[in-house]
Amino acid sequence: MPRILITGSSGQLGFELQRALCLFGELRCPGRQQLNLASRQALLAWLDAERPEVIVNAAAYTAVDLAESEVELAHAINAAAPGAMAEWAAANDALLLHYSTDYVFDGSGETAWREDDNAKPLSVYGHSKWLGEQAVRAAGARHFILRTSWVAGVHGNNFAKTMLRLAASKEQLRVVNDQFGTPTPASLLADVSAQLLARTLAEREQPYGSYHVATQGCTSWYQYAAYVIGLAREAGWPLTLPGDGLQPIPSADYPQQALRPAYSVLDCRKLQQTFGLQLPSWQQGIRQLFATLDAARRG
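Structure tokens predicted for dTDP-4-dehydrorhamnose reductase:
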């Protein structure tokens, strides 16, 4: 069975990848103490010692606002590390699955973004992820780059869990209503990754390259919050937030260090048509995520 490296295994995507990929090979899931992605020398030494046949890079510097002041670290993890992995994969005939973000786009217009649209990141985080994509492509390894958006999982921190936590303790919440995207469960992204890996293990030659992976539809952060909180009300969660306690606000009323794209919906038709996959609506994806969170709450 192939040896599969999963970086970022303690994150919400990495957690789901361990579930989804465990039947395909022997997983290697080093923590930060064992694998320092900020050091090219340490990363290459680890790869030389372990020699994985598949590299699944779910690690990323995702502190979008903090990245504005930690530029060097963001670029080391999001750009230099993927480039080093891709170079090693090319030299050692390994497969690389790498994940990127809707934040590589500037969010202008109201048309879903395709894989070949021009990237114009607005933030250090988005720029570092775009440089990582370019480094992966330039290395010449067999690779899939999966761009996704607004990831949420049962493990780790995310917007959905934050809204549920705040709704249980606050009487008013103000949420941005002029940034649009698509919530994507980490479990869905992991399952799509498993599909691609299964195909590659069965037949080496594949239509490698970049694909968008997200749920279908479009929502704002405010509408997303309202939907999650509504599910909690229906399920009888003890919420402090009254029915009129959730208030929509413009981005200008919630200033942040890093600029976010106003419209970062991803067009996923290429993935669906190429691999015959059907992606769920964002509401269905969030319902499934909430059902898992609700079951855990009830014990």
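The chain has a mean pLDDT of 96.
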